[in-house]
Task: inverse folding
C-alpha cells in the first residue's frame, strides 16, 4: 500500500559517478600544427533554388495569346510556367536614385524662426489671407446676376395701393 502524504518513490537506479550525461563529441586537439595545417571547412550545399513566378511576363503572354477569362489565364499559367531570373530579382533600381552623401530618409525641415512666432507674424499672415478671401467673395456676390422673374419683379416694384372705392351692388344704384 502507498504511504499516505508521501510521493511515490522513483524506481530507477541512477548511474554511477563515472557516468557523463549528454552527448560525447570527439575533438581533435593537435595544437598549433593541426590548426595551421588542417582547416575545417564547410562545403556549401548545392540546392537548386526555385525562383518565384514572373507574373508580369506571364500576363503579357496570356494577353497576346488571347486569354480573356480567369480560367484561360489559369490554364496559361499552368502550361507556361515562367520564373524570375536571378539577376532581375537582385537588381535594385532605386539604388541609383539615392545621392551619395545621403545617409537615410528625407532631409529635415528647416526650423521655424522663433522671432516670427513671438511677433505673431503667422497670425497676421493668416488674417491678411482671410481678409483677401472675404473681399474676393464679396466681389463674386456682386457679380452674381439674378435673373428677373415675376416674383423678384413684384418684390422690387410694389404695385400701387388700390384706392378705396365705395362700390355698391347694382340693385342699390337706382335708389
Result:
Amino acid at each position: 500500500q502507498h504511504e499516505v502524504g508521501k510521493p511515490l518513490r522513483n524506481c530507477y537506479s541512477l548511474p554511477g559517478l563515472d557516468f557523463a550525461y549528454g552527448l560525447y563529441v570527439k575533438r581533435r586537439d593537435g595544437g598549433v600544427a593541426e590548426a595551421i595545417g588542417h582547416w575545417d571547412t564547410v562545403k556549401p550545399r548545392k540546392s537548386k533554388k526555385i525562383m518565384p513566378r514572373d507574373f508580369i511576363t506571364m500576363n503579357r503572354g496570356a494577353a497576346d495569346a488571347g486569354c480573356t477569362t480567369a480560367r484561360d489565364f489559369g490554364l496559361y499559367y499552368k502550361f507556361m510556367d515562367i520564373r524570375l531570373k536571378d539577376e532581375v530579382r537582385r537588381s535594385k533600381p532605386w539604388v541609383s536614385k539615392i545621392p551619395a552623401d545621403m545617409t537615410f530618409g528625407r532631409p529635415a525641415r528647416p526650423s521655424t524662426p522663433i522671432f516670427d512666432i513671438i511677433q505673431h507674424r503667422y497670425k497676421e499672415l493668416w488674417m491678411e489671407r482671410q481678409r483677401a478671401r472675404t473681399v474676393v467673395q464679396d466681389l463674386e456676390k456682386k457679380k452674381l446676376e439674378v435673373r428677373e422673374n415675376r416674383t423678384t419683379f413684384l418684390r422690387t416694384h410694389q404695385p400701387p395701393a388700390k384706392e378705396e372705392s365705395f362700390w355698391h351692388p347694382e340693385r342699390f344704384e337706382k335708389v
About this structure: The radius of gyration is 48 Å. The longest helix spans residues 121-143. Residues 115-143 form one domain. The chain has seven helices and no strands.
